[in-house]
Amino acid sequence: MEQFLYVLEVTRPAMLTDGPTEAEQAALAEHAAYLQERSDEGTLVLAGRSQSNGPETRGIAIFFAEDEAAAKAIMDADPAVTNHVMTASLYPYRVAFGNAKALDWTLSEGELRSNSDEPRPPGPGDNTPPHLCAEMQRALDDPQSPVGYSPQFREYWVRMRYSDATDAIRHCPWCGASLPSSLAEQWFERLRALDLEPEDPKPAELESDEWWRRPAESLPQ
Ligand SMILES: [Zn+2]
Known about the structure:
binds zinc ion, 7 strands, 8 helices, Alpha-Beta Plaits
């Protein structure tokens, strides 16, 4: 495997200042889902964008591919490119310095996902769902929706029609984005470690997403 970098530039700079059209918005959601998939399959090292909104704004993706032709195919298949919302240029690349811990921390703080119009990255205890496209937002706001999210388990679920049972889901039913794996098992393990039953009063951090969003070293053992 070799390493490559592609640099993205928006086709219509007004998209950044005046906001995306509906078509652009859809392409950006697909672009985010595409990068999430590359990340989940382990070929993406990192991706993000500069936080300016001028014509100098760039996005980058560093990733692995078999060779330059394969790398170009990956870049050309990015929905931002296929939908002509961005142009991309490819460079053979090699990461020379890095800090895996800092990258982990940055990702867990949600700062690499700040393409959306979230006012700030999700913080421990505020129960912000890790994935929230417009359709998912609508579902989570609707008490009748069979799809829901349990922040303490980091679990997206669908409610079965003929029982009250729920099943964890791994992809957004609307935009197809990968959803994080459920932490329900780890949650119950923590409870057992504290000698508590699910109906017992629990430490506040286990009632919300605080326990898994907080950096590991500050969690009580
Ligand atoms: Zn979605």
